[in-house]
Amino acid sequence: MGRAVRLAACALNQWALDFEGNAGRILKSIEIAKGKGARYRLGPELEICGYGCSDHYYESDTLLHSFQVLAKLLESPVTQDIICDVGMPVMHKNVRYNCRVIFLNKKILLIRPKISLANAGNYRELRWFTPWSKARHVEEYFLPRIIQEVTGQDTVPFGDAVLATKDTCLGTEICEELWAPNSPHIEMGLDGVEIFTNSSGSHHVLRKAHTRVDLVNSATAKNGGIYILSNQKGCDGDRLYYDGCAMISMNGETIAQGSQFSLDDVEVLVATLDLEDVRSYRAEISSRNLAASKVNPYPRIKVNFALSCSDDVAVPVCMPIQWRHHSPEEEICLGPACWLWDYLRRSKQAGFLLPLSGGIDSSATACIVYSMCHQVCLAVKNGNAEVLADTRKIVHDETYVPEDPREFCKRIFTTCYMASENSSQDTCNRAKLLAEQIGSYHINLNIDVAVKAIVGIFSMVTGRTPCFSVYGGSSRENLALQNVQARVRMVLSYLFAQLTLWTRGMPGGLLVLGSANVDESLRGYLTKYDCSSADINPIGGISKTDLKNFIQYCIENFQLTALRSIMAAPPTAELEPLVDGQVSQTDEADMGMTYAELSIYGKLRKIAKAGPYSMFCKLINLWKEICTPREVASKVKHFFRMYSVNRHKMTTLTPSYHAENYSPDDNRFDLRPFLYNTSWSWQFRCIDKQVNVLGLVYGFMCRALSMG
């Protein structure tokens, strides 16, 4: 009897509303899966239209074009003799569902709607879809005419059912359902389902991959079975990078692992597994078998097709492997680099421009672009024809072949050091040396003429000339003069981005890169509409601590020795006058807190859902060895004052690569007001009362000890 099944999981770089491209990548993945002998192919969530369509899901066009692509897939000879599982939105009885459409040989077997919708963090599925709430219930779905003409079917099953092939039983989960506490695979497994499938639209977050892997493996550890996960990959049009990691697991162990970061638009993972291994694993779990005897059965859709061959005794099966996880530094090196590549090629621009200050943040951004150039050269070397074609379009040269990352960097990456009278020679030298080592086209310029012209206009109109505080000016004057410098740099960045290639006799324009990190954004330590205002920001979701570690990684792996002096220098905005030719302004002194403290505040505020009082209560224990309760109270109050005063800056924050779960991005991840009562009077009064209580308790304990 048949026992060895060959299954395929796909990671596809789909793009929202790119129906032509999405259809091509789906067909290519099916062709590859068939070529490797697979009898079942699973693709990512909503792969036909692309996951990130957002409010375009409301449009009837999105539904229409999805069905048109489905018809194209059904008609294609490529999809014959393999069960194809694709994702698309479907409207049933005037209700829109996030669905899997499973078909075989021009016949739709089942439309399975999503049961648990993702509606936290970056996800808003309840805005566009309704969860299917009828457990183990199937209805008739009346197919649109465009599909009827291909399949010859008027209606097909729609609902919560499983597929019974000649040799096994398959059950479907969709992304969030794996993460839910009552995941469908539990009951399905008890009802005899041996193969679980999960189509995901799961994005990258630093240090998250192991969680997904653990969930998949644990899904079959208690209950036995085979688990296949497919995932979206790449930038499909917004801040998220979907990180692939297609995988196949059996009985709690990983059998096959897909790449987390790559420039391949289509990746197909295929494994051969023995169904008898599942059956024998389950046979000895008595608690599982007792529960299975009482489970409510799922509707079964009978499929006249086998995933195995009748004579497969000698077919070799895949053995368990050890999952290889990337370090956080590797994730920073690869994830944002792949995201930048997708953005560059899909925006049809000719490269990037980065204001390179010689500090850690802009240097880390430059290193990510350099990493992208490495990935492009490696992909071309490995025979990736799509990457080569995209590269030639970007550089406008049909014969070009990128072989050296530094040479490619010279073509597509411009760095610009914008000096002022407040800039030190050290930062200028550091920026220049780093540009030389990564190969970027580097520009040195001075902004003093523009700054003096703008201040001159103000003086001419008002009759007053502002001064820096070191020259007797007020804090308002000091801040305004710093902001003028910062905003002039933003204007010049866009001017040079538009015309630098023109001056070099090259076609196209450049995307401006921002380089504000997640901690500075949280604190609001940036000038609104300065160089933090850009087209995109690859480090906007990454902490200062992680960026420092990434810089060290680049020193060791890219041999960028210029980064050593950048690492050693204290972070500074260089917007105030020098003292004896040396920088006197530092970021942490300006902010009134360290970057390490900021990272803690950010995680407590967003991940731990802590307001001022709760944060104080947590920190008096966390910092009890280094701070008194009164000092903790002072720090917490200062953070929340600064956070609330500057929250309005988040409304204009440059779209950033999402990498941290404490990102303050208010586009859809961190939804909060931007006009606060910055005195926090009630909250701070609660903190003060607790400080006083703790002071009395501490005093009582001291007296008791002295008397003892």
Can you walk me through this structure?
With 708 residues, the protein is α/β, with parallel strands linked by helices. It has three domains: 4-313, Carbon-nitrogen hydrolase (Nitrilase/N-carbamoyl-D-aminoacid amidohydrolase, 4-Layer Sandwich); 329-591, Rossmann fold (3-Layer(aba) Sandwich); 594-707. Helices cover 43% and strands 16% of the residues. It is built from 24 helices and 20 strands. Strands 1, 2, 3, 4, 5, 8, 9, 10, 11, 12, 13, 14, 15 and 16 form a 14-stranded mixed beta sheet that branches. Strands 19-18-17-20 form a four-stranded parallel beta sheet, sandwiched between helices. α11 packs parallel to α14 (425-438). The protein is globular. The mean pLDDT is 94.
Please indicate the count of domains: 3
* Low-confidence parts: none
Question: Any idea what the shape is?
Answer: globular
Count up the helices.
Answer: 24
Structural class: alpha/beta
Biggest sheet character: 14 strands, mixed
Radius of gyration in whole Å, from Cα?
29 Å
Output mean pLDDT: 94
CATH class of the largest domain: Alpha Beta
CATH level-four homologous superfamily name of the largest domain: Carbon-nitrogen hydrolase
* CATH topology-level name of the largest domain: Nitrilase/N-carbamoyl-D-aminoacid amidohydrolase
Helix content: 40-55%
β-sheet strand percentage:
15-25%
Strand count: 20
Which architecture name of the largest domain does CATH use?
A: 4-Layer Sandwich
Kindly, what is the distance between the CA atoms of the first and last residues, rounded to a whole number of angstroms? 83 Å
Enzyme class: ligase
InterPro entries: C-N_Hydrolase, C-N_Hydrolase_sf, Gln-dep_NAD_synthase, NAD/GMP_synthase, NAD_synthase, Rossmann-like_a/b/a_fold
Organism: Asarcornis scutulata
Pfam families: CN_hydrolase, NAD_synthase
